[in-house]
Queue: 3 jobs
Job 1
Amino acid sequence: MTQALQTANHQYHERLKQVLPGGVHYNFNMPWEEVPLHFVDGRGSRLTDMDGNEYLDLYARFGAMILGHAHEEYLDALQDAVRRVLCVSHTDADADALELMAAHIPSAEMIRFGLSGTEILQTALRLARAYTGRNRFLRFENHYHGNADNIMGGRVTDPQNPVPVDFKGDYKGTAGRATNVMADQSYLLPWNDTELLESFFGEHGDTLACVLTEPVCVNGGSIEPAPGFLERLRALCTEHGVVLIFDEMITGVRTGLGGAQKALGVIPDLTTLGKAISGGGVPVSALAGRRELMALLESKKVIHAGTYNGYPLGAAAVAATFTILARDDEAVLHAMHRRAGQLRSTLVEEAARVGLPLVVQGPPGVASYHCSEEPLEHPGQYDFDLMSKDIIVATAFQRHGVLVSSISRLYPNAQLSDDDLEVFETRARRALGEAKQSIDEIFGS
Amino acid sequence: MDVDHIKTVLIKEIAAELSIAPGEIDDQSSFMRLGVSSVQALKIINRLRKELDIDVNPVALFEFKTVEDISDYLAEEAS
């Protein structure tokens, strides 16, 4: 398969690079994606590239493709929406979508649609600032909340004043960032450290507009919140008049239609959603929250604008996705989680068979594997050795026809079948054997 | 740590991994142009990391495309 990757895909990539910077529309392509795969067909959990190679798709476009490729009922809904009316400001498509979301997501008393996660996160910040009259926000290390200047990467150099600053070698840093935009607006803390959080709130809590967190730190390796951490964060935010924002861009829908907030029983004031909420075919992001906060959008005190916000095709996609996944008490999602659990067991067993230490952690819709004896407890444990080993496994998976999301995330979809699981077992066995050899070569056996 | 020393070690390790002469690699050589695979890059960087005794993010290293960029970055991390 490796040789075949160098043919049509490679040539097409060379052609594309002449007019497309880097040959990609996205900067966070990982090292093993030096020559991106260009696909020509997708069915269920399988993709076919330009060279005719077939892959099991556990990448799912960063988790957005929740329904699987070419889902008939979803495609019918999109086609119907396309044929009715496309480019208008208001249609009869909104209410179904919004009411379905509000019925399932605990914090979603009111909802606004946008297009991208980056954009809707900034609207959430604006809303929190307007509500509290405060400027600064707190976020956590190795969480990801979009690619705006004020919220991406950075590290703290003085723990007494935990403001993030640029540093050379920051994968999530960028040239061209506005000066001091992170340090002037935000604080950055390690996640899952309740003691540190208490101490920080004692000193800075009354100056904060909001706290942003992924309820499960999927971007940092699918790390689950420590017992009591989110509950204490919720209480501290309430106590200090701080808006709590859950970024459920990844966990929304994938952990159940109510998101991680429902599963974990901790309800934020605002929730940002995207990716899977619209099924994977078209982009929609959403800001959901308490009526009292969202009312600031109603009165135009806080501006939220965008030509395509609430576009009919997007609203139809959200309604179709929630309708399909909600049916029979979320039967499709439960089946997907069950198969994801089987996939997890297979992966662990096959790794053990070749003598490779490996764990899979996180809720079944958003899990990650790590070449480690024990699950990670906080994102700071994701060091060079571990990340390198995970990358080696990911590259071996790709060579053997399994795509995972960066760095080691396993995103199942609603069409994941028993046949897919069998294919995974065969390919994982080959890939893990090869990865073990490379890991031994680099790190010693 | 001296950036020239790092550069010399880096070129030596790349040359060894690719079985080519160090003279074929210059400051502006990049992993991609030299045909260094992801796994080979990790091997090279892991050896350098141990030699220089620094902790680095492997993903960050792919931000630096040339021998010069990588050496400058590692020198800064080691300082």
Note: Residues 1-5 of chain A have pLDDT under 50 and may be disordered.
Job 2
Amino acid sequence: MKNTLKFALTAVLLAAAPLASANVADCVKLSKAVKVAVAADSSKVLEIVAANVAANESCACEIVKAAIVASDADKKQVAKIVNTAILEAPSQIRIIAQCAIATAPDAVSNIQAVVEKYDAAGGEGYSEKGGLAKGGLEKGVIPPPSDDGPNPLDYPFESINDPIVKESRWLPEFFFPPIEDDPNVTGPVDNSGSSGGSAGGGNGGSDIGD
Amino acid sequence: MALASSLCAQSLFDLAPDDGETESLPLSYTAGVNFGYDDNPTPLLGNDDESFYGQAYVGASFLSNSPQTTTNFGAQLGVIHYFDNLDAAGQDVDDTAFTASLYLNWTHRVSERLRFVSRNFAAYELEPDYSTGFQAQRQIGNYFRWSTDNAVGYRWSDRLATYTGIRLDGITFDEFDNGDRTTVTYYNDFRYQVSDRTVATLTYRYSDVSADGAVTDSTNQFILAGLEHRFNQRSTGVIRAGVQLRDVDGGDSSSNPYVEGSFRTAINTQLSLRSYVRYGVEDFQRNVFDPNTGFNSIYSNTDTLRIGFTADYSVSQDLTLTGGINYAALDYNDLQAGGGASSVDEELLNVFIGVNLQVTDNIAVNARYNFEDLTSDAGRDYDRNRFSVGASTRF
């Protein structure tokens, strides 16, 4: 019993991986604040995205996803959101594009057109922040998937680039619910004309069961 | 009271590991207390003990999800105390039991071609979790169950990939003889992307089981073909079927059909369902003690069918209902030792329902009812009812 316990605990400890930084919690809160702000005034979604991405580049993914969902953006609007976010955080171009595609896969061609525009521009700056890195890929960032399709290594829920085709209707309608979010809304937030609009935020994380 | 099973990836519900939580969750702590009534806390002893009990626990959990690395972690410590004296065959049983559980899952996507996956779990528990497929009765005393599964995935072409790995797992019982097991499993999965929604799999597993006491060791080889299908963003199904080639020390070699499957769906934002099925020959329950005759019989094989369902329904933002069923049918056959019957059939039915009410942002109250019924050719039938009410906090 004792040897088995030692062996098992050692095996578990050896498999331990480094934990993420505390910024994760901030991005979750920021995401919820953006949802609230966009829901209050969807006509200002681009200003909200610009202000929040400029102040929180590391949370660009969560901001873009929240803006797309909260504004119920169509394909053109998704492209505008992506373009706005890239202008404010050009170093995050790949992350922004991947997250936008994961949230709005039917807008993939519009998103790729935006990315290709910046790729074609190469190292020339489109913003005061000095432009994009040559080659377009940051170290450690996974390149976007090829046009050949999804990754067979992905388990059904694991793909961050969601290749699911939504047009099929051979299943009953209730199998295709709208993607709804239930933000822990604390109240409308006025972010008009301000930067760093991380105000209010939600209370805690979502319930992950007992 | 179990850790968030959707993140554990350690149950029969998780044949395709659920990394569906795409948003990171900050480190959070939980604590709770429960008070309940158990009308049969020592069910296999044929006595009529019943008792009120109290339970307390603290826990922590964390999920980090980035495009390259997913890490989730959870831990829980608890204690349960029965207020009435329990006895087993005239001898006192500990009225207090400590429990602990821990999981750590990690996926690192080095590139589109290469990734590493590690899933680890350890638990020191009193009550069986039938959805994990390890047990079919409530034994006396605690048990310690652990597993570590580590694999490397490689994408050979646009459509073809493999996962190759090794899994170590084991279970030991504090007060149950012949129940300890240690298993080493080597496996390789071939995965072929048939379409955007479907992956076809071909799996080979070799497992070497070391048993305890009078139960002999065994080896099992599994050759399985399967499909993983994503119906939509909220519904997935996995099924694998094939043959199990089995060799038991001191027993016969055999080939048996084997199938495992799971299905999960979030029908809408209120209702989600999960289910599992598994049929095969298990090594976990190969001895049967008949309390009426006193015989302890050892069998080569336990042909086992396990089916389970669980559902969660959000009545409102604050009120959630949970319910589920676990069913196991066991056929002990090929008697190796002992004076029991040449074969024994048993069926376990476990049904549970619960309600959880969020009173404030951080405090919830809950109530649960759990029913178990075992019917057995070996004269160890029992039924058991547990009621509990409790409160918990998360911060």
Note: The helical segments of chain B are 5-8.
Job 3
Amino acid sequence: MTNFLRLLKLCRPHLGAMLLGAFLATLTVLANVGLLAISGWFLAAMAAAGLAGTQMNYFTPAGVIRFLAIVRTASRYGERLVTHNATFLLLSEIRVSVFNTLSQLSNVDLAMSRSADLFNRMQNDVEALDKFYLNVLLPMIVALISVPIVVAIMAAYNSNVALICFTALLIVGVALPLILSKQLQQTANLETHYSATLRAELSDTLSGLRELAIYQATEQQIQQCRAASERYNQQLFVRHSAEAHSNGVSLLIVQLSMLGAIMIIAPLVYSGAMANVELAMLSLFVLASFETVLTLPNAFIQLPVALSAAKRIFDLEDKLHPETTSVQESLSVQPLGLEFKGLSYCYHSDTFALNNLSFAIEPLQKVAIVGQSGSGKSTLVNLLSGLWPQQNGEINLTSADKTIAINAISQQNRCELINIVAQQHHIFDGTIAENLRYAAPSATKQQMRTACQQTQLGDWLSELKLRLDTRLGTGGRSLSRGQSRRLALAQALLRAPAILVLDEPTEGLDNQSKHQVMDAILTSMGHCTVISITHDPALLANMDNVIWLEQGQIKAIATHQQLLAEQPEYVNLITRF
Amino acid sequence: MTTNPRPNRAQQTTLRAFLKTHSNHAGSLLKVSIALGTFNALLMIASAYLVARSIHLVMFEHANLATITPLLWPLAALILGRGILLGFSQRISAQAALKIKTTMRHALLEKLTLLGPSYIEQQGHGATLNTLHNGVEALHDYYANYLPSVAYSALIPLAILMVIFPTDWKAGLIFLFTAPLIPFFMILVGHKAEQLNQQRWQQLAVLGNYFFDRLQGLTQLKLFNATTRELKQIAKISDDFRHATLNVLKIAFLSSFALEFLATISVALVAVIIGFRLFFGTLDFSTGFVVLLLAPEFYLPLRQLGSHYHARLEGISAAADMLKILNEPLPAKDLENIQPNTQNSLNLPSIEQLNIDNLNFHYPQSNEGVNNINLTFAGTGLHAIVGQSGAGKSTLLDCLLGFHPQVISAITVNQQQLAASHIKQWQQHIAWIPQQPTLLFNSVKANLLLAKPDATLTQLETAAEQAGALEFINQLPEGFDTQIGEQGEGLSGGQKQRIALARAFLKQAPILILDEPTAHLDSQTEQQVQAAINHYAQQHLVVVIAHRLNTIAQAKQVIVMKDGAVIEQGSFKTLIDNQGALYDLVHARSKQHD
């Protein structure tokens, strides 16, 4: 319930549009109900008048019928436009809110729940909430307004008919969907589980075709997939048949309530307590009144889905702690060094990713970090970024005249000073210029072109028809690995930071792009302090110093040449084919 | 949401035909479902008559409840029948869809295994997986809802017309004339509206992609300190899209507007006309009321057809990917005919010598491949292949593993030339570990047993121990019975590598082929794995694509490849002493930028 209210609160800024939509939707429904009921009355009255040979004013009802027909169609059209508008408004509201929450959470909160997983869940959740208004809220409002109106009018004619109709409306609109939704919730978990299993089996089959062939297990694996597919579909069938049964029962109740109305009214007409034309009118009225709850069953089925999606999003929002860091200092971009003192970090309680690490980097020095996987290289970069909280020890920024703890400056200031080119550098779905502008919002096109030239992207850029306005596609799909690395370096150049941090910048590149990236790096290194994780001998040869980490501790600090000469193990570490 | 371009009208016709053929797998079920649905409509017509008759009797014949009870009982029975029929009809159509989906998925999977791994790599693993998983599921609504509703939109109005005409041909004429107007207007407005509707879905998808792309790049935005700016941007873009989309919707909704308008006006028209005929006594009330009851039902199937529009498009779009896979020609279908005379069994008690003679292979539509490879491997020892990426190392291994049957005859084992018909037997003699081994979504044990289904627990443990995996497997919550997640989730890269190694050891194949991981395993793991492989090489033939200096230094033979050809081979020491290609590879990199 609290989540529902919170969700409603989120909708508040667009209340006007949403209510207008609900009003038009209700109007549509009522016009439709009225149309059928009045048609029934009109027919009966005309027949009665015809038989009795009396005159009657048929212009008014005929006009009303035509009028209602037009009202119904027009308001339906208006309703669809207005409700879609409201949906889009809400969609924007939800996305902004989710994005805001996520952008304020620290990476620890995010990464602990596996980011890929979190991301997928977030996508499903946001999409589920996108249609909250249209599928859940709107049908409920429509039913809340129109059901009392319809039942009240009916009660004015006959309270018993109204009672039967109201009960039937409740069963069809609320009780059945609630039962169904409870059934569905029970199967929903299994459904998700089986769907994931099927996906995993299929994925294994596709990626392991070669191995399966070698182990003569292709047939066996295909059988597995077949079984998983069968099981998933059987589970789906449970849902589909529950829905089918519920549809059948709904139909039964709707028709039976009309039958009930006839049975109640027939004796009244016989005894003369009720005008005969009212029988025709009311029986059609009862039938048409179910239009008011037509979309309600779906709303009740969607409701738990939307609520659990909302719960997950609100849970994340609740993780937000108010900013407590006191910002005392601010540094301008200038040659800066770094000082690490007794730095330790644990992801799990007992294993140290970094273990009491201490070393210093002079302003403008170029330092490489090498080490096997698990030696703590990435943790060091994570801590420098400020997106991961420090646990033990200090990181200080040193300039010619003073030393400042890195935590004393704001995150914004830190981002200006330190530029990190991560291994999973994200290229946004947008143009080259847009991507560069993420790094440097005020960069001119000229500056962008220069940066691209400096990072060896000039030739490529001049071949593109749209130059800087070329779209790069999702995840930079149209870029080669080398190009996206160089684009990241161009972003770094535009930012002109005091400290440049590179994470395996030449890893996984073919030889030619490696050369180009290397040239780009050497250009970028000019006026700043550089820390690079790398195992590339060519890059190592260009660094002033190499810090060799092992199991979170320093194994050696020396120049590349010294290490080559003295440590055979180092040669093994950095030689890859 | 998909961003797939929607197929054009001509393609849609092909795809609909394709989907129709596939409905044959559950054709009878679908027919039963449609028959039940239509029967339901017939009962509906019958109950309309009973309702009208009862009301007529009460209103104008002064009947009391007892008089009409003989009519109301059958009515109740009809209602009950309708509820049951509706439930069963929907249930059966769901069952039909289910059957079709299962068959379709299986057909796709079978075809994909025939097309082989290189086809999947070409198309993209993710895209193919989506077709198999979500794509096939997208067919559900097409078969369960759209196809039946097409049938109903023809059958039910027809049934109503056939009943109405004998009763009152004038009312029938009203139906007959207004009915074609609906499809007519739908086509008229629909042509434009369909395009617009497609645009709408695409725009929604674009908007979704934009948002989720930024969400994925959130860390990047934080590093650029750009989150606040992006927040405004998201709001702005959503708003722009809202305006653009609403402009589109104004027109797109016109088609349903026209449809609704016609249906509603027709019902109103029927009511008014019948009202006047009743007034002038040219029609009895009972008939008039039947017509009024049936009028909305007459237009309902046509209107419902419109609401399944999206199911239709989704199904058709998904079908495009499936049709592509199923129609893909098999690369070498008549392989067996190439060498009809070779003896069918391969007899290899042990491997003495393995030769590759004049091997040439190129991927279609690509320059990658291998040229004129001639190699000799002894029955035991470590043989390392080195070369830069794109040098043809993986292609060479694929040929050796028998994944390219066209060129299998280039391989000779113990003087016995291999033929395509030998491939299955040949593969039994090989264990293979790719750079990123696939661990199946199953227990550790099941993954190992893949190599030797009848292995005992002792054999499992020995193999795991040799691969340096026993210790961590025993530390897993349920040991060998621990479930491995999708893509080996929950295990580190080194652990996955070692399980794959244990699996290979378990097979005890005379030949072990592996692609060394390029990623830096932690040093202890690296040494363990290295030692285990060296040990295995003492008794078996091991061919490895080497990425590390240590590996090639310990190899019996080093093969250097470049641009699809072998440019150098010999022992590590000889090649280094010769200062040739290998020497350059080892030393060049530290010299590069001096």
Note: Chain A has a mean pLDDT of 84.
